[in-house]
Structures are given as C-alpha cells and as structure tokens.
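Input record (one chain):
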Amino acid sequence: MITARRQRTRSSSTTRLKVWCLSRIKNNRGMTLAEMLVVLILIGLLSGGVAVIGTAGVQMANREAFDAECEALKDALNDARDRALMQDANRGVIVEIFYNRYEIKTWDDQKEKFYSKYVYFEKMQASFANGTIDTRRYIRVQFLPTGTINKGQTILLRGPGQLKRNLVLQPVTGRIRLSD
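The corresponding structure, as predicted from the sequence alone:
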C-alpha cells in the first residue's frame, strides 16, 4: 500500500513538470535586445581573455625555446673546447656558425679527415655582433689544443620577436658566456 502511494505522487509530479515546461515553450517569445547584448558582451569578454592568455603563453614558449637553443649552442661550444683539450693532434676543433645552423668539425686520425656534425636552429638566427646576417658567410671559431680560441668574438643571437642575446667568446681563457 505504501509503495502504491509513492508511485502515484511521482507520476503526478512528473506530469506537473511536463505541463509547466510545455506552457513555458508556448509562451516563450525570445530574448529581449538587452538580454542579447549582455550575452554578446559576456562572450566577447571571455574570448578576449582567452586570446590574451594564449598570446602570453606563446610568447613564453618562444622565450623558453630560444633560451634553450642559446644554451645548447653554448654547451656545444664548451664540448668542442673540451674535445680540443683531449685531442692529441695539433688540429684542434673547428666550429662554424652560420645564420641558421652550426657545424662542428673534429679531426679523425683513422680516416685522416675532418668529421662534421650539423645542427640546425629552430627558433633563432646567428649573426655578427654588428647585426648583419649574411647567408653566405659564417663565423669560424677554432679551439686550439690548449683550450683557447683563435680569435675572440661576440655573436648576436636573435629569436622570435625582439629576443636577443650575445654569445661572447674570450680568446685567452677560452671562456664562453651568454649575456642576459
């Protein structure tokens, strides 16, 4: 007997809900102009906020990728210096830095020729310190077996947008550092 009552109350409340929804649909005449403007303003504010956050995220990702490539180039130059120190030949190690890549040349005693390794830049370009980019020219750095550099240089590294860093090669000490 108790279960029968519960079923009747459930069905009557469901019926009332259906009747109320149908009456709302029949009486619905749409949104007013003010309501429509409020909705459009809210959509505009939300999409504008997403665009600003998205742009900041892209700039941060570009900065991190540029910094990582600068550090990778610095580490490659340090490795080349260390390799020149460990090599017993008087040839040293040569690094040629082009605008879009760098090439590390190491002497191979068994084959009696230089072995080359190319690495291409993704987010940066290298140029001379004065800022000129020449696709035919390159910056040549030779690490001597003493660990020193044949000639001190400053290399300008450019990234996306206005990102710039200097790579400084000191001739006497062979020290390599990146500016901020």
